[in-house]
């Protein structure tokens, strides 16, 4: 076996440092959240316990942690569903060129390059000028769609660019209507991609800060609540909250990945059964 070149070890060391830089802060927060009852916000740790996790579920002197969590969860689900539906509809529409399609496409993705705080400010001002309440379920919802929809559109455009139209032609030859073709042919084929768009929509919304800062009104979402806690909470309870929210995010990702895996097995089984039937 030939010895590995020096460049391999240098690249490996660089990758390890990159991973530590990327996940080190999260791991540090996770470790410090298990401080003992007398522990503080820094090392060294003073014992190991679940005290701050228990304290997190008690009534807090400041903020509304669980109310903010519920708002972020509801908002994330709203954004997720809207992103999936609009992305699929846009992907189907853009399969054929139409007048102004290029301009509409660039307008749709322009919000990705506009500073998020300016988007938040602009949406908040529009709602205010229209006499509408600036609320997380209204202005915040709209501001977050300017962040999630472009990603959903780009994913669906890539999916439909590779989509084999012969499947639809075969369905129409069998007498299927346009809606039946979409429901029974197109959607099952692109289902894994829809799960990816849904995951993008939910996770991007759940941790969005800048685009919600000026559009949430008087009720904070969870990222805003955590930011507010950094100025007035001096115990590891904030670390416990960070650990739980991180685990919740990983759980959501795991659920979506499990859904993709189950769907893949079902499709493989259906293909196998069809092959046996032939």
TrEMBL record:
Gene Ontology BP, a term: transmembrane transport
Annotated ranges, domain ABC transmembrane type-1: 69-256
Localization, UniProt: Cell membrane
Gene3D superfamilies, sorted: MetI-like (1.10.3720.10)
Domain of life: Bacteria
Protein keywords: Cell membrane, Membrane, Transmembrane, Transmembrane helix, Transport
GO CC entries: plasma membrane
Membrane-related topology note: Multi-pass membrane protein
Transmembrane segments: 7-34, 73-94, 103-127, 147-164, 185-206, 237-262
PANTHER family: PUTRESCINE TRANSPORT SYSTEM PERMEASE PROTEIN POTI
Family: Belongs to the binding-protein-dependent transport system permease family. CysTW subfamily.
Name assigned to this protein: Putative spermidine/putrescine transport system permease protein
